[in-house]
Amino acid sequence: MKKARRITDIPCLHDEILGVIFSRLPVKTLLRLKSLCESYCDLISSPWFITLHRKRFSSDPDNHCIFVQTGKINRLIRIQNPSNLIKLNEPCTTNYTVIGSINGLICLVTSIASRQLICLWNPSINQYKMFPMHNENPQETRKCDISMGFGYEKGSDDYKVIRVLRYKTGWPLTIVEIYSTNSDSWKEVKYDSRVKLNTCFCNVIVEGLTYWIAKDLDGSTVLASFVWSIEKFFIIPLPEEVITKSQTFAATNYHGSFQLLAYSSPSKFKACVDVWEIELDISAEDYEWKKKNTFHTDFGFSMHWGLTGGDIVVENAPNMPFLFNVTTKQTWEMGINPILTLSNYTESLVSINGFRRVRNQLKRRRKASNPVRARLS
């Protein structure tokens, strides 16, 4: 069989016009176009096109997905077709924990041969990078709580991972370490000791900021926002109404803005959810909470994970988790149970230095599940 000849040039439109047209195409199609001719490959690989495509896809709710971790077989779900569960070619085993997702990159923590590693993975382009912790067993003689976050610094186009180590005794009580994909290295930064992070991983990621639900020195619940550009925590009190009236609340990234879902139940089978939005002025260290919406449901639910393109992922135990649209009141069963973690995801062409291709894990799993194929191999 003759080897297929690569086309080196195709008469086409101006790159800017062609880029606008191509930016509407899914990643899978763009990857095929890259192999069609050199000019297409150069265009699709260029930083300005990758940014244009990412912004267009993230701004369109029809392109939003949910990455769902179940503990066994993880899936990607398209919001517009929640019954279609997309299998993923994962870079490691399902024994990992997701820190968060931003701009098409998923950040997770895994252990291989008793060594804890961080993995940055873009399932759309089937590439990943793994790197070790800054100090895998920091000061083993002292017990500590560890919390991690993932974020993006727009000014330098730098994806970063933060690890906060809070020790029970000794000095210093808290150490903050930051990994930069641009420098491919870790460094320590100063920490504001006025806040204690409540969770092992950040609660929500909004471009340029990473948020935790936390406690201040007085024990009050606050929002701790880490600003990557200045490498500093910004402490924000929650609205008084949320503290006094809500049974529970969840932070979420809704179309690129931070929102807080405050849940209260006036009766056993009805729920009321307030949607709060915050406007931040980092330079002036000022903020303003606004209640954007309140909606009611005719069912009770045991857990909610936040808005995803206008929907809430709801677990109405012991039933199957489903999507609930706050505007149309429609529900769609997701077909996955249980859910361990859930992250917003939008496909992108984003790549970082050191990325390499993920081996075909799906093919290996199919072969392992087929005794005949396994013996032949």
TrEMBL record:
One Pfam match = F-box
PANTHER family, alphabetized:
BNACNNG10540D PROTEIN, F-BOX PROTEIN CPR30-LIKE
Domain F-box, residue spans: 10-49
What the entry lists under SUPFAM superfamilies is as follows: F-box domain
InterPro entries on file? F-box-assoc_dom_typ1, F-box-assoc_interact_dom, F-box-like_dom_sf, F-box_dom, SCF_F-box_component
UniProt name for this protein: F-box domain-containing protein
Q: Any idea where the F-box associated beta-propeller type domain is?
A: 82-330
